[in-house]
Write a structure and sequence with these properties.
This protein is α/β, with parallel strands linked by helices. The chain contains 13 helices and 24 strands. It has helices spanning 11-20, 27-37, 41-49, 67-84, 100-110, 124-134, 182-195, 211-222, 235-245, 254-262, 284-291, 377-385, 420-435; strands at residues 3-6, 56-60, 63-66, 90-93, 114-115, 136-140, 161-164, 174-177, 202-204, 227-229, 249-252, 274-277, 296-303, 307-312, 319-320, 325-328, 333-338, 343-354, 357-363, 367-370, 373-376, 390-400, 404-413, 439-442. The strands form 6 sheets. It has a 9-stranded mixed beta sheet with strand order 3-2-10-9-11-12-13-14-15, sandwiched between helices. The chain has a 5-stranded antiparallel beta sheet with strand order 1-16-17-18-19, with no helix packed on it. β23 (404-413), α13 and β24 form a beta-alpha-beta unit. It is globular. The N and C termini lie far apart (44 Å).
């Protein structure tokens, strides 16, 4: 059915959020922090430190970073960056898995620099094109982190976070995420209320250059919780991390949550009590398996352009967050107007409205949702046909329990010595590891 949905309320949730993150307990300090940093990652770290300098903020492997250390490193690094680069300079960050991936973007934004995350999923050609188009002056690394607690940051307007869209049909575009005004805080407060985070550590499976991973870290830092950074960890290290820190919450995209199930994360002595799924829609089968562990499951729907705009408790349908408007047109195309989108934008989904909720029925833009990434079959065909080794090719999309969908490319080559490994290696520079077909069959 066509029509529209509008999320209502939010003010009680906003007041409750202010209480939970300590703004009402530390009004003077919180006001000073927000006045200096706005609604940025640096502000979340400073506000998190109000819960106690000695609390553990980040864990990655054997590295455990306290809130006091994290705050001081951000301040010192911001001071060094503000002396090195003029206000408004665009930079990127090389590390998206460890504490460095939190310190550097927070410090750069505090120093008045814009941050454009360029994760490892991008191909070399796309990365170079984005650097040129976005005017990225430097890629910051661990060598740029400073630890001088007495450093002073030059007084500047905080920079912006410019997250990349999927880029599935070409070079990704950057979407600005600036400070949080009241309109933006309303849906975030509603989201926080619906999730109902339990006290305790949060296992973060996505990398920090992924919107879901970064937003989860911000939410956890605001509450003064311990964030377990688990992106890319092998199963044995993931298991050791869970046994050592017993996370109360696990968050990730559906593929990562399915892998966590297989790795025994939910079979621990103290299994997680909450699962927060983001990015792709969580399948009913995986949701049921997660719920069978005893965990409460929240499925969040969103995009880079809109932010999270709706949630559901499987198997129910999606309901919009406070302040969000969802519209379904006659052809089933879904558009969203949120504080982040700045107007109605099409999400690429096809759906309908039933009993006051959004039900999804597929994609309208021809993209394939595989392992939390939107991939263009047409672009895969174009890039394969452009290879001199290839005579012809076609792609096939099949359903997959782990990834949601799998793309298989069937390729005819000029030389029988060309293997699928050769073709995969040739595609990585243009499509990146996330954009290449899961399977390549040489026929």
């Amino acid at each position: 059915m066509t029509g529209s949905l509008r999320g209502r309320g939010g003010m009680p949730a906003l007041v409750d959020l202010l209480r939970r993150v300590g703004l009402l307990r530390h009004p003077v300090a919180a006001s000073r922090i927000l006045g200096r940093y706005g609604g940025t990652l640096a502000a979340a770290i400073e506000l998190g430190a109000l819960h106690g300098d000695d609390r553990i903020a980040l864990v990655r492997g054997g590295n455990r970073v306290t809130y006091g250390r994290l705050r001081d490193d951000v301040r010192a690094t911001a001071a060094a960056l503000s002396e090195r680069w003029p206000e408004g300079t665009a930079v990127s960050v090389a590390d998206a898995a460890t504490a460095v991936g939190v310190v550097l973007p927070a410090a750069a934004i505090a120093a008045g620099l814009d941050v454009v995350p360029l994760g490892p999923r991008l191909g070399d050609a796309d990365r170079a094109a984005i650097r040129r188009r976005e005017g990225i002056a430097a890629v910051l690394t661990a060598a740029d982190v400073r630890s001088d607690s007495g450093a002073v940051v030059l007084r500047r307007t905080p920079g912006r976070l410019r997250m990349l869209s999927s880029g599935s049909t070409g070079v990704a575009s950057a979407t600005v995420r600036g400070g949080m005004g009241v309109r933006a805080l309303m849906p975030l407060a509603d989201l926080d209320r619906r999730i109902g985070w339990p006290r305790g550590a949060v296992l973060v499976l996505p990398p920090l250059d992924h919107g879901h991973g970064l937003s989860t870290v911000v939410a956890g830092l605001l509450r003064g919780e311990t964030m377990l950074l688990a992106s890319g960890l092998p199963a044995d290290e993931l298991g050791a991390l869970v046994r050592a820190d017993a996370p109360a919450t696990v968050t990730g995209v559906p593929l990562q949550l399915t892998r966590a199930l297989r790795a025994g994360v939910f079979a621990a002595e103290r299994p997680p009590r909450l699962v927060v799924s983001g990015s792709s829609r969580l399948s009913e089968e995986v949701a049921a398996r997660l719920q069978a562990t005893g965990a409460r499951v929240i499925d969040c729907l969103g995009s880079t352009e809109t932010g999270t705009f709706a949630t559901r408790v499987p198997p129910a349908a999606f309901r919009p967050l406070a302040g969000v408007r969802i519209e379904v047109r006659d052809d089933g195309a879904v558009s969203v107007d949120s504080a982040m989108s700045g107007g109605a934008v099409r999400t690429g989904d096809i759906g309908g409205i039933r009993r006051g909720a959004l039900v999804l029925a597929g994609r309208a833009d021809g993209l394939v949702d595989t392992a939390g990434e939107l991939v263009s079959s047409d672009r895969i065909v174009r890039e394969l046909r452009a290879l001199p080794q290839v005579r012809s090719c076609r792609v096939e999309v099949t359903a997959d329990e782990l990834r949601g969908a799998v793309i298989t490319a069937y390729v005819q080559v000029h030389d029988a010595a060309v293997t699928h490994e050769h073709l995969r290696d040739a595609l990585i520079p243009t499509l990146g590891r996330a954009g290449i077909p899961r399977r390549i069959e040489v026929v």
